Amino acid sequence: MIKNWLFALALLSLALAGGCAKGGNGIFPTVTINAPNGISTGAIYPTQSVTFTATTTDPVGAAVIWSVSGTGCTGTPNPCGTINQTTGVYQAPAAATSGVTIKATLASDSSVSGSQPIAVIDITTAVSPSGVSSTLNVGSGLTQQFTAVALPNDAPQMFTWTCTANGAPCANFSPAPNVASAGPAVYTAADSCSGSCVQIAAASTLDPTGCSSSSNCTVAKVNLVTSRVSGTYAFRFSGYDSSNNATAVVGAFTAANGTITSGFEDELTSSNLPQHFIFTAGSYAPVSSSNSNSNNSGTLALTLPAGIYPNQYQVVLDGAGDIEMIESDGNGTGSGIAQQSGSTASFKGSQTFAFGLTGVDAGGQRIGYAGVLTTNGSATAGGTITNGQVDVNDNGTAHSYSGVTGSYTPDATISGLWHVTNLQLDSGTTLDFDFVLAAATNTKANPLTFYAISTDTAVSGTMVLQDSTVTYNTAAFNGTSVSALTGANGANTNVSLTLGSTDGNGNFSGQFDQNNAGTILSSIQFPGSSASYTYAASGTGGRYTFNLLGDPATSTAPLPFILYASGANRGFLLDQSSSSVMTGTMNPQGKTGGILSGSEITGTFAAATASSGNSVVDPLAANLLLTWANTGVSGTEYDSANPAGVGLVGAPGYSLQTSGIGTITLTAPSAQNYAIYIVDTSGTCTLANPACAIQDFLMIDETATNKIPSVIFTKQ
């Protein structure tokens, strides 16, 4: 036995000797390069000074020797830049280059090293709004603010601005030419040229050629108009009258340079039968031209019969000219939206629409509807409704209906208005509603859309053409989406935002924020240890079951929801079981994905509250100005307490994760903490792509003292 023990000891000694060859603790030495915060592959700009550090093992904190290498890295000065061998300070060259490698080698063992590929890229600049996809309308004599961002994200955010009208300097623009400024810039439409004759650019102060000879500047184009409100608009509104009766309105109006020449609306309250009004007058008036938001805010008035409200709205306009509005006549509260409608040519034949309606039942209790209906007819003659599926949550009592049928007809005298009659849910339950065309662009991203209002009870909402190219099975939902939900909690409200990923196999994961009557759940990751966050298709008609909210950290089970899909990762959500009756929408995040950054959320955004959970919510409309140079938030908020507007101030500003979830902190008009979820972008986002801009996002207040929060939607 002694011999065997000595043999084992000899083997152990050999093993330890082999370990010592690797390192003092039997671990292979390693070198890992750490890039500074904000620096990633392909995101270093010319002349930038960057300090790299290295983490070593066995021994920890060992000295390293720094070097830079790559194809063509020879000459004086080195076209790949230089690095201090001892400190790791890298000095980028004056011109862009690629294929460069930063290397750190153990001073004690040249066979052990770590490397980090980099690329030096030109600084690019983008101006918002209208720097990417569209021409912004600016009304005569009105003022529009512009922001700029330089990419990569850590490039100096200082610019020299230019503004030209038909090639000549603009009459009223600041800052002055050739003066370095972080912005924002302010343009007042005081030029005599017509059409899209104004161009606004911001060049990096590190770019000696500016935008005149550079392809790295995204230039904003401005179209000068008499008034931003011209054309035919569809609108919808929901809220409460002065007696706290729920109110819903759907209608349309035609305006010529801010003067309303014709229109109609259907209005319904829980205490009144449906009322139908035709009006021939009204107006849109911008706020004072001295206001920096005058191009994006004003009042909309509709000339209705005496005693009929709402008839005046405080509104804000986004870059596309859509109107987000809140009631401002002092006879109720609520919010809504108006957008330019178009031709009904694409409303024909066999088409399936997903829809969501929210409001109160005949007893004043919260109720929500979601479903799909197939129409078979034409815009001019109407037709039948078949193959319908509808789910209802009436104050916590759920109903589900299939085989729903009915008919629809165009109004005999009012073009653009249709009536759905006798939509048979079951033998004793029917639903009737009217609808108007809200958007005629029939694409997957912007499908044919109608605003709808029940003629039975005070509910309203939206109908969206279902994408017929999708097979609505479980596999069809495979991607990232953002869901917004609103509900009631007694005398308070319950709101949430969810960033979720579906995998095509029924598994649902992500993160959500919720304010349930002042109880805050922030950045909750799911599924966590729970296996109950799932989704599944119910047949192939577009009906899905989803599990949302809950709290994996406290073993609180998620709530069951029904989703009726209008497309892949898109549709209307309805809480199946709770008296909160949470309703809302799910939408894909971004057009083509990518990495999101705070620099992509710069610009002017219109913001307004979505449908309120109950009458205690004070709706608001606002212009938000987000700047990247100092991650700042500013703007003007309009609500019942501040009908003339009050300044918004953000401190320290906003933050954004690459997933598209962030925060906005305000100090005025009161201390508020918002969670923000990015919904849509103009293209694929990278850390160095000025052709990507965040176009809209959602917000909820997570201040614990706010027990009546609402979902706020914003759009650039």
Brief summary of the model shown:
The protein is mainly beta. The chain has 5 domains: 30-120, Immunoglobulin-like; 124-225, Immunoglobulin-like (Sandwich); 231-340, Lipocalin (Beta Barrel); 348-478 and 502-581, no CATH class; 598-715, Lipocalin (Beta Barrel), CATH 2.40.128.
Characterize the largest beta sheet: strand count, sense, and whether it forms a barrel. 9 strands, antiparallel
Number of domains: 5
Structural class from helices and strands?
Answer: mainly beta
Kindly provide the radius of gyration, computed on alpha-carbon positions and rounded to a whole number of angstroms: 29 Å
Name the shape in a single word: globular
Q: Average pLDDT, to the nearest integer?
A: 87
Q: How many separate helices?
A: 1
Quaternary structure of the protein: single chain
Q: Main sheet: which strands, in order across?
A: 22-21-20-19-27-26-25-24-23
Q: Helix amount, in percent?
A: under 10%
Terminal CA distance: 83 Å
Beta-strand content: over 45%
Low-confidence regions: 1-26
Question: What is the number of E strands?
Answer: 52
Give an account of the 3D structure.
By secondary structure, the protein is mostly beta strands. The chain has 5 domains: about 30-120, Immunoglobulin-like (Sandwich); about 125-225, Immunoglobulin-like (Sandwich); about 230-340, Lipocalin (Beta Barrel), CATH 2.40.128; about 350-480 and about 500-580, no CATH class; about 600-715, Lipocalin, CATH 2.40.128. It has 1 helix and 52 strands. The strands form 9 sheets. The protein has a 9-stranded antiparallel sheet with strand order 22-21-20-19-27-26-25-24-23, with no helix packed on it. Strands 39-38-37-36-44-43-42-41-40 form a 9-stranded antiparallel sheet, with no helix packed on it. Strands 28-29-30-31-32-33-34-35 form an 8-stranded antiparallel barrel. The protein is globular and about 85 Å long. The N and C termini lie far apart (about 85 Å).
